[in-house]
From TrEMBL:
Domain Sulfotransferase positions: 70-327
InterPro entries: P-loop_NTPase, Sulfotransferase_dom
Keyword Isomerase: no
Molecular-function GO terms, alphabetical: sulfotransferase activity
GO cellular component: cytoplasm
Protein name per the record: Sulfotransferase
Top class in the EC scheme: transferase
UniProt-listed Gene3D superfamilies: P-loop containing nucleotide triphosphate hydrolases (3.40.50.300)
E.C. code: 2.8.2.-
Family per similarity comment: Belongs to the sulfotransferase 1 family.
The keyword Transferase is annotated on this UniProt entry: yes
UniProt keyword terms in alphabetical order: Transferase
Length: 332
């Protein structure tokens, strides 16, 4: 396990608070249930969800240090559901008067650089006050674990067929997996995923936490589905812009701005950028990921190349059972 150690010589009240959190974190990791990890040896069950230890520590820090602003917009997602795509679309839409399409920020920095993840440990806490409004943040935390100050802000949630999520996550995590561990078979990933044991899982409870909140406050949570967006990206983008308080004007629609942003953020375009072929993104002090790993196939239904009929049936049955009565239907 690699998290930042406590400060050896606390110099301020904040430092002393930080050390208290480190102590609480160390204690939690000892007492909460453990399961097999995908990337590292173990995941830990904290408040009903499975996490790498860093995310538990950051959750404690977040509650103390993060101060939301009413204009903040959050992108929430389970891993591998299309976060990177949404980051690009949200950033390009909000900042469409700031950049020309030929020399766009995204072309040089890629979507990962567009706005920060809340979930990454940083101490002293990162100061986000310099970011222009509306500030945007991404998070993989389930809705039920977010600090109350955040939940009054607007949220965009992206969801995807769990079978494609499983395959995408298995590829991604196998790549990131500690070299000290044996290779990670799809059978093992499948079994763990079905049991809900994967980073930020269970998948179904994660999705339901946002789905239920979106039914209660549709003006605050826009619930999107990857498959619907793939089929009609322009429709999705227009709704997204309106939800974020920046609807496209008649003139913009006339000029084809929606189509241009969709094209800028397409899998084809983003995955072929130099920054996404060769660049690396750092998440806090601990994680480093090659940008290319966020772009694999970008397709609907790749699970058909990996899952047996029985595996498909088992995931579909779990999905039906978990979502029964919720009104949520996912395309598969
Ligand atoms: P696959 O592994 O199925 O190809 P996340 O961004 O949440 O980590 O999700 C990654 C998944 O989204 C990967 O799925 C990736 O290929 C896909 N993806 C990345 N950029 C995309 C884009 N612009 N359009 C559609 N899918 C995209």
């Amino acid at each position: 396990m690699s998290t930042s150690p406590p400060l050896t010589k606390p110099e301020s009240k904040e430092d002393a608070d930080y050390n208290k959190i480190c102590e609480e974190h160390r204690h939690l990791i000892e007492i909460v249930p453990k399961g097999n990890g995908w990337m590292e040896k173990h995941l830990y069950n904290y408040n009903g969800f499975w996490f790498h230890p860093n995310y538990i520590k950051n959750h404690l820090l977040l509650h103390i240090y993060f101060k939301s602003q009413p204009t903040d917009i959050f992108l929430a997602s389970f891993m591998k559901t299309g976060t990177t795509w949404l980051k690009a679309l949200m950033f390009a839409t909000i900042n469409r008067h700031r950049y020309t399409l030929s020399d766009h920020f995204l072309l040089h920095h890629g979507p990962q650089g567009a706005f920060p993840y809340l979930d990454i440990e940083s101490y002293p806490p990162t100061d986000f006050t310099h970011l222009p409004a509306p500030r945007m943040f991404a998070t993989h935390y389930p809705r039920t674990l977010l600090p109350p100050c955040i939940t009054s802000c607007k949220f965009v949630y992206i969801c995807r067929d769990p079978k494609d999520v499983l395959i995408s996550k298995w590829h991604f995590m196998s790549n990131q997996r500690s070299k000290d561990l044996p290779p990670f078979s799809l059978d093992e990933a499948f079994e763990l995923f079905c049991q809900g044991i994967s980073d930020f899982g269970p998948f179904w409870e994660h999705v339901l936490s946002y789905w239920r909140a979106s039914l209660e406050s549709p003006d605050k949570i826009l619930f999107l589905k990857y498959e619907e967006m793939m089929k009609q990206p322009e429709v999705a983008l227009r709704n997204l812009a309106a939800f974020m308080g920046k609807p496209f004007t008649a003139e913009e629609l006339e000029k084809g701005v929606v189509e241009k942003i969709v094209e800028l953020c397409s899998f084809e375009n983003l995955s072929n950028l130099e920054v996404n072929k060769k660049g690396v993104v750092k998440f806090g002090k601990v994680f480093e990921v090659e940008n290319r790993l966020f772009f694999r196939k970008g397709e609907i239904g790749d699970w058909k190349n990996y899952l047996s009929v029985e595996m498909k049936q088992r995931i579909d049955e779990i999905t039906d059972e978990k979502f029964k009565g919720s009104g949520l239907i996912l395309e598969s």
